[in-house]
Structures are given as structure tokens and as C-alpha cells.
């Protein structure tokens, strides 16, 4: 089983109430090979919601209390992001996911890049909060940009739910 960012599956759960659908992910869900998950929704945040970025570090730093997730209104939403990450971890562990496909650049889901915390559109290397927690627990995480190649390399068929 794959777990995937819900916004990549077409669910309108992004901060702006939109999605960013990837057709392969929709197809995998329809085949019962993937399940959608939104860490920020699981953390109790509404949709739509203010944009948020990590200030002072990366997702690992937020988990360690060295950095914060701040929204565009200046509110500290770190607790919701951390709660969503741990809820996601429970679900990933329940399904024993073989990999988790996460939306790049998100302060929760980014697996290689996140925004730099200045709300200026610039990115930095680093993981989002959920991506960092899943990686700390040994799960394979990849972005939507890596999925097609990863899937093509799989020789085993994915189990259905
Ligand atoms: S938290 Fe992840 S799944 Fe939810 S909207 Fe943001 S990028 Fe998509």
C-alpha cells in the first residue's frame, strides 16, 4: 500500500482550497493501491487556511522544538503541524506503507524542498514536518516528481487494501 498526499489525489485540501492532481495517483487510488492522507487536516486545521512556512529551520527542527511553523497572519501553528505528523505516522504504520508520496514544497509534505519561511516564494532544501517524522521512522518518502520513475521500477505488484 502507498500513502499519498490527499491534494495529489485531487482532494481540495490545500491551504487555498485547491488540489494539485496527479493522474497516476488518482489511478492508483481507484485500483486500491494507494490511500490519500492530509497531515494538516489531521492536525485539525481548516480548509481553506492561511499559508504557512517553517521559520528558523526545517521539519526536523520543528519536531525538535528548534523552529516553528508560522502562518501568513503570524500565528504559530506548529502544534497542529506536529499533531498532524503524528496522526499520519499512525496511519502509515497501520498500513505498513511501502512508500509515501508527498507533495513537494509543503511545510508538512515537502520531501526535498520547502519554502524559506519569508513568504517570498523562495525555497530551501529540507523536509516538511510530516516528511521528517516519517523519514525518522524509516519510511521511504518520495515526491510527486519521483513517483512515475519509482513506480516503473517496482517489479512487485502493490497489495490492495
Ligand atoms: S498537508 Fe500535504 S496533503 Fe495536505 S494539502 Fe498540504 S501538501 Fe497536500
TrEMBL record:
It comes from Acinetobacter baylyi (strain ATCC 33305 / BD413 / ADP1). PANTHER family: HYPOTHETICAL CYTOSOLIC PROTEIN (PTHR30087:SF1), INNER MEMBRANE PROTEIN (PTHR30087). InterPro entries: 2-thiour_desulf. It comes from the Bacteria. This is Uncharacterized protein.
Amino acid at each position: 500500500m502507498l500513502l499519498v498526499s490527499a491534494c495529489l489525489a485531487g482532494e481540495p485540501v490545500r491551504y487555498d482550497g485547491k488540489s494539485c492532481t496527479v493522474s497516476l495517483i488518482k489511478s492508483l487510488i481507484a485500483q486500491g493501491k494507494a490511500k490519500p492522507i492530509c497531515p494538516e487536516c489531521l492536525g485539525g486545521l481548516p480548509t481553506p487556511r492561511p499559508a504557512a512556512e517553517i521559520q528558523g529551520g526545517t521539519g526536523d527542527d520543528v519536531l525538535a522544538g528548534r523552529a516553528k511553523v508560522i502562518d501568513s497572519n503570524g500565528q504559530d501553528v506548529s502544534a497542529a503541524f506536529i499533531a498532524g505528523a503524528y496522526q499520519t505516522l499512525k496511519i502509515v504504520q497501520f498500513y505498513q506503507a511501502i512508500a509515501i508520496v508527498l507533495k513537494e514544497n509543503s511545510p508538512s509534505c515537502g520531501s526535498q524542498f520547502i519554502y524559506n519561511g519569508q513568504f517570498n516564494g523562495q525555497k530551501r532544501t529540507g523536509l516538511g514536518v510530516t516528511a521528517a517524522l516519517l523519514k525518522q521512522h524509516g519510511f521511504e518518502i518520495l515526491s510527486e516528481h519521483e513517483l512515475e520513475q519509482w513506480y516503473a521500477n517496482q517489479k512487485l505488484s502493490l497489495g490492495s487494501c
